Amino acid sequence: MKILVPVKRVVDANVKVRVKPDQSGVELANVKMSMNPFDEISVEEAVRLKEKGVATEVVVVSVGPAQAQETLRTALAMGADRGILVTTDGPTESLAVAKLLAKIVAEEAPGLVILGKQAIDDDANQTGQMLAALLGWGQGTFASKVEPTADTVSVTREIDGGLETVELKLPAVVTTDLRLNEPRYASLPNIMKAKAKPIANKTPADYGVDVTPRLTTLKVTEPPKRSAGIKVKTVDELIEKLKNSGVIA
Amino acid sequence: MPAISHHNGMDEASFTAFADQLDRYVRDRLIPAEPRMIEANAVPADILTEMRDMGLFGITIPEDYGGAGLNVSQYVETIRRLAYAAPAYRSTISIGVGMVTSALKTGGTAAQKQRWLPQLAAGMIASFGLTEPGSGSDSAALQTRAVRTAEGYVLNGTKRYITNAPNAGLALIMARTSAENLPRNAHISAFLVPLDTPGVTVGKPDRKMGQAGATIADIIMDDATIPADALLGEVEGKGFEHAMRSLDNGRLSVAAASVGYARRALDTALSYATERKAFGEPIASFQLIQAMLADSRAELYAAECMIADACRLADEGRRTTIEASAAKMFASEMCGRVVDRCVQIHGGAGYLSEYEAERFFRDARLYRIYEGTTQILQLLIARNMLKEFAAGV
């Protein structure tokens, strides 16, 4: 079984994100970029399935700027076999990415697509779901356990209040949650080996997908600063304060 | 110039990818494992395995021998990032990737490289044996003898304060092959000695001030017979030259370790200064605290620039005795001042084992001592200045 793993290049999780002065987005100049942490978990899961002999090939794909090649190289160093880079400099909206992925799935015919449940830049949490819808495949989202058999995959999902296990017919789409695994570090020897692994360079036009944004970002702002709270001694005092501050009438 | 291969190291993109992974590894694995390591006074076995898997033991070994073939700048940069965590991690790999690999690359025969470099790259721990009970940097007083016999050489003597000795598989041992002292230290030769050689024993690990997890012990040779091909380069009288050249490289490693650990101490001091309150405000808002932070940052920057420059010269194939010595001397003294300020900024907490500051203070003390004390480096720098002056350089 072939596994397809989409990976996204995002601002590193340890960077303190700043909003651009013109409020058009967040500052990306001279900011450290890394693979989306949920995608690292996806790559790890796919590589483990290959190591267990369940998967035969792990293909990683990224949609983004030319530098997303570095993200693909990291995935290759973790153990993926080859990469596909779809270069586009504009914003990458979930639906456009899902359409591109659907085309790539048609070409590659994977048995499983494993995506991160969301990217930590826009936290959209919808590309996997959109892809499943476009393909008409089953989806197991927020996975904390993934167990494929010959023609199905059992996915344990993290839901409000507990765990839910679903069984999907293959091929299927799985999105990964934090507790699925702990991704490995790409070792120096494997980083060197990854240099020889192939990356195919593509554009959205190659797949006939229009990636023109359908959304307009009006404004990006910092979360409002919280002001210090006060302590009250009695319920009456609480009600009085709430009335005074106009929270209740 | 001797034939040294100064290739350009690893391509920039791959090295950056590795540096990112290493930073993450240091932050997520090595630093959290520090209490375990201190408790056991040994690098935990699982961490050692991970460090081998990460390829850290092979960073300077050429690709043909199973390593990564980093150039000096990349090697020293790797050490700096690794040394943000407790010193024992660097210590475990440093002798192998530093002095022993460097001596093998510049002085080893093809067969010696073929035998040892792949084993070192795969994670064999190494030691470097120059210091003795009665001699350190003064080669004339070196006592360990190597006597040529029909079977090879018979070694007798004791090497003292030998880093990694209890865990090492291989030691590069300096021994005299001539009873009388010869010009240019030609009485000293270097030998590749497997530590399981009959007649070679390792003493009990020495107890020490800091750097928990890093081990130091004597290596004792009592009629230890080694084959003739254990002589580095299979040429007698070149040992001291190899040792000194390797030390240039070892000094850059200690300089980088000093910078890495000074950064750790300064980051810790900065974060403490912003959290700890006195007179109703964080102590970081007091100008005398700010002065300590600013001096530390400026000195750290100076040390980083010196190291970068010395590495560049080394990568151009130039001899860097003055620059490497100066960088090591300045960086280790700088680290001493920074860890001292870190304790000072912590105030009373800085003296308590509950906080990390007192450990940084003890650990960093060694940087001013090994790979040449500050005083020996002063002599070395001045001697080379006088030599250059006399030669009209």
From TrEMBL, chain A:
Protein purpose: The electron transfer flavoprotein serves as a specific electron acceptor for other dehydrogenases. It transfers the electrons to the main respiratory chain via ETF-ubiquinone oxidoreductase (ETF dehydrogenase).
Any one of the GO BP annotations: carboxylic acid catabolic process
Keywords attached to this entry: Electron transport, Transport
Domain (Electron transfer flavoprotein alpha/beta-subunit N-terminal): residue spans on this chain: 23-211
InterPro entries: ET-Flavoprotein_bsu_CS, ETF_a/b_N, ETF_b, ETF_beta_N, Rossmann-like_a/b/a_fold
Designated name of the protein: Electron transfer flavoprotein subunit beta
Domain of life: Bacteria
CDD domains: ETF_beta
PROSITE patterns: ETF_BETA
Organism of derivation: Sandaracinobacter neustonicus
Listed SUPFAM superfamilies: Adenine nucleotide alpha hydrolases-like
Highest classification ranks of the organism: Bacteria, Pseudomonadati, Pseudomonadota, Alphaproteobacteria, Sphingomonadales
Keyword presence, Transport: yes
